[in-house]
Amino acid sequence: MYTQALNSSDGDERGVEDVARASQFQARIDADERIEPNDWMPAAYRKTLTRQISQHAHSEIVGMLPEGNWITRAPSLRRKAALLAKVQDECGHGLYLYAAAETLGTSREELVDGMLSGKAKYSSIFNYPTLTWADIGTVGWLVDGAAIMNQIPLCRCSYGPYARAMIRVCKEESFHQRQGFEIMVTLCRGTAEQKAMAQNALDRWWWPVLMMFGPPDQISQHSDTSTKWKIKRFSNDELRQKFIDATVPQAEFLGLTIPDPGMKQNENGNWVHSPIDWNEFKQVLAGNGPCNRDRLAARRKAHEEGAWVREAAAAYAEKRKRRQLAQAAE
Amino acid sequence: MATPNVPLWEVFIRSRNGLAHKHVGSLHAADPTLALQAARDIYTRRGEGLSIWVVPSNAITASDPSEKGMMFEPAESKIYRHPTFYDVPDEVGHM
């Protein structure tokens, strides 16, 4: 679901290994050709994509935690089945993305270890807690909504395996946002207490969701290279604006108030938000958000507790192989 | 926390419309049985297929992309292999 601010590039073309090949490579990008795993690519392109795709994958996996928190407490069987399916989808999305990242030459084990050791980042949004059932509605409506804004342009990304993974993800994800919005509609048409719960969730999630699109264009680093390589098609601010303009009427429909009293519509019809607290964003990325430690601890625990399964599967595969060899020798 | 590298498999799925198995992606699994089960869970959550093949990735021999010019050139120049190369008088109608 979620790539926020992960789409900045590593480095520039200084130290490009082979000028002639680099210019051929750029010509292919400019002609809208897809780059495939065995094609020549600049080292910085490989590094940028490995980081972006693997962080995207980690985000899907860590993203299962805040929602998984509510599976056993969903208010009805219908909601429970939908939430379970959504969380399974996030897991699937993580796996498609890991597979795409691996085609660039880093093993799955290295990628996962990078996340577990805390070296690799994942989307800041998952470091916020899901305190009430209305948070599940809000996460689907806004977090998945923001993710879809981000991911649709990635379906045309210059790197073939990433673009193909994103097409699959986008296809599956449209139900996520709709199920979230349906939860919100139900709460907003319910009792005054339910509606207040919906408003409270919106109040807590609005600003962190706007931060998902990453730092403002003036300060976001290296995004020129990512644009030139057609990894990134729209700037952070463009996507953020599109998201806000799409969301304001939905909030109005729900009868909820966006927690930004200073927000105004400009002459072009765009909703202009008040300044975002980028210090909060930095803090969360640096590991000091409300749930950072909890999330990593949960991932590590799951990984450690799954160790015996991986060992048993490997031992069984080894035994089978030996038996087959012995049979072939007879 | 070092884990041994788990083998990679390529997954092919035949959809219900009767077309051939088509590559859909890859996954890691220790053996063929686990690979099939994982492929079911990862790639057919919405009834995408009626049949799955899993193939060890290292069993695939691929053409070299840097030689694609030489590899596919012979087909490029043979436009007479396409039906539109041939003129059929209009009176004859659709053929």
Largest two-chain interface: A-B, 30 and 24 residues
Shape assignment of chain B: elongated
What is the strand arrangement across the widest sheet of chain B?
A: 2-1-3
Mean pLDDT of chain A, as a whole number?
92
Helix content of chain A: 55-70%
The main pleated sheet of chain A reads as: 2 strands, antiparallel
Could you please describe the fold and organization of this structure?
The complex is a heterodimer of chains A (330) and B (95). Chain A has helices at residues 19-30, 43-62, 64-68, 77-102, 108-116, 133-151, 160-188, 192-211, 223-228, 236-254, 278-288, 292-305, 307-329, and strands at residues 264-265, 271-272. By secondary structure, chain A is an all-alpha fold. Chain A has a two-stranded antiparallel ribbon with strand order 1-2. Chain B is an alpha+beta fold and 95 residues long. Chain B has two helices and three strands; from the N terminus they run ββαβα. Chain B has helices at residues 32-43, 68-76, and strands at 8-14, 22-28, 51-56. Chain B has a three-stranded antiparallel sheet, covered by helices on one side. The A-B interface holds A 36, 38-40, 85, 88-89, 92, 95-96, 99, 102, 107-109, 113, 116-117, 165, 168, 172, 303-304, 307, 310, 313-314, 316-317, 320 and B 1-8, 25-31, 34, 41-42, 45-46, 62, 64-66.
List the helices and strands and how they pair.
The complex is a heterodimer of chains A (330) and B (95).
Chain A: H1 19-30, H2 43-62, H3 64-68, H4 77-102, H5 108-116, H6 133-151, H7 160-188, H8 192-211, H9 223-228, H10 236-254, E1 264-265, E2 271-272, H11 278-288, H12 292-305, H13 307-329
Antiparallel strand pairs in A: 1-2
Helix pairs in contact in A: 2-4, 4-7, 6-7, 6-8, 6-10
Chain B: E1 8-14, E2 22-28, H1 32-43, E3 51-56, H2 68-76
Antiparallel strand pairs in B: 1-2, 1-3
